[in-house]
Every structure is written in structure tokens, then in C-alpha cells.
Amino acid sequence: MAAPTPTARVTPAGIMLEDGYQSLVTIAADTNIDFWEKTSQPPGLDGGEPIPITTMHNVLYRTFVARELITLTPISFTAAYDPAVYDQILAVLNVHTTITVSFSDGSTIAFYGYLQKFEAAALVEGTQPEATITIVPTNYDPVNHVEAGPVVTSVTGT
After folding, report:
1. Handedness of CA 33, 37, 41, 42 (dihedral sign)
2. 83 to each of 35, 37, 118, 130, how far by Cα in Å?
3. Tens of pLDDT, residues 46-92
4. DSSP of 130-143
5. Taking the C-alpha atoms of 62, 66, 67 and 71 in order, what is their torsion angle to the nearest 10 degrees?
6. What domains are defined for the chain?
7. What is the pLDDT of residue 13?
8. In the chain, count of helices (H) and strands (E)?
């Protein structure tokens, strides 16, 4: 194989998000759950740790290859909440369902996952009560029992 050849960066064709406001998280198992998103971290994509393939035949460099499988990383967000949300959280905690993250431009990413954690922050006079909510993508269709990756729906122009 030949040595790597430098390549030039091409200007992206899409339209970047210009503001972090507004992103919303929908849990299909309860679409009007009593929390109000304040900050959010959408899912990421993780190719995993490199696989070392160094042998005694290497003379200068440790060598690696990429993994084949991809992880959709957990999402987390902070939210204001109604104390009644505790009953709603108990009803959807660990329930395999569709999760949708809606971006400010109207784009969405939908995936299978479950609400893993609802962690209320300390209640402090003079501040709005908040909780951190964590959702874990599963990439698994529980009805058809098959692998199912995220579905990204872009708006026109992106």
C-alpha cells in the first residue's frame, strides 16, 4: 500500500446550527412528560477504542485498526420539572421506546432507547429546581428484535 497522500478540506454543503436554542427531547412513551428542557446534549457517535495490531514485526510504530461497530452515545439534559414528574418517570424508566431530539432548525434524530436516570439537583433558595435526565440509545428495535440505528431527518438545505 502506498503512503498516505494529503487531501484538501472542501467547504461543507450543509447549513450549520447557529444557536443552541431550541432543542427538545420527546419520549414516545410519554410525549407530554412534565419537564422543561433548559440545556441539552444530543447523542454522539463513537467508533470505539482502536484495536491494537502491533506485532514483533513492527519496527518503529505501534499499529491499530478501527472497530467495525458504532455506538450512539447517551444524551443528557437539564430540565425544570413539576414534582408530579416522579410518577411519570417511574412509568417510563427503563422502558424501551423511541426517543426524538428536535433541533432548532427543525431537523430531528430519532432512535430507540430508554430513560436511564432522573437526578434532581439540590434545592436552593433563589434558584429554579432542575434535574439532569440521561437517556441511553439502544440501537435495538424491541418489536422486530433487530439492530436499528438512528433516523436523521434534515430540513431542506441541510
Report:
1. positive
2. 9, 15, 12, 11
3. 999 999 999 999 999 999 999 999 999 999 999 999 999 999 999 99
4. EEEEEEEE--EETT
5. 120
6. 24-153 (2.40.30.200)
7. 86
8. 1, 13
